Automatic annotation (TrEMBL):
InterPro entries: Cytochrome_b-558, SQR/QFR_C/D. The keyword Iron-sulfur does not apply. This is Succinate dehydrogenase cytochrome b subunit. It comes from the Bacteria. Signal peptide: none annotated. The chain crosses the membrane at residues 63-80, 101-122, 167-188, 208-226. SUPFAM superfamilies: Fumarate reductase respiratory complex transmembrane subunits. It comes from Winogradskyella aquimaris.
Amino acid sequence: MSGILNSSIGRKFAMALSALFLMVFLVMHVSINFTSVFSEELFNEMSHFMGTNPLVQGVMQPILIFGVIFHFIMGFVLEAKNRASRNIKYAKNEASGNSSWVSRNMLLTGLVILAFLGIHFYDFWVHEMTVKYVNGDMSGLIDPNNAESGYRYYEELREKFVSPVRVGIYVVAFILLSLHLLHGFNSAFQSIGANNKYIKSLKGFSKVYSIGIPALFIFIAVYHHFTH
């Protein structure tokens, strides 16, 4: 692994694999969250299953956290090396004429997304870890002493989107995620060797994904803000 990461091609390949892994996770994440728009009961059931299943919590969750950290660290490494290698080239060529704003600012959009993830983790993951493993409440109930009180997940989700400021942060973050994905999606497939035969189809799919997934997250936040 260290040998692979020491080469430029190896780093790009590893970056692409981590990106594809996170893209799959985003589909799963938005699918679960979207159920909150049309079924409180289904969202609660799915959230409780994901939050208490040993395989999800003990295996998938650590892998996901590692994937996020690895992706961002590798992104910083690649950006630093890219900047170092193109300093001389950009002295002769206008950068804006050779690349898009998104491709030149992947580090910036990545940093904003990383800051947003910090807020998101604080809102949901830290809270869940505190309730389940600090307070010792694995019931998922609004009132752990009352089995009839119902699960807490739906109400907690809606509560997070009461503040227009927080909703605004979510909207901006997901717009930047969309821009990040528009460039990153194609780069990921190119890095793992997708050839020209599939490029046109991949570009079409990447646009649908890169715009559609963030748009769904934005819709969920805005929907719960205005229907609370």
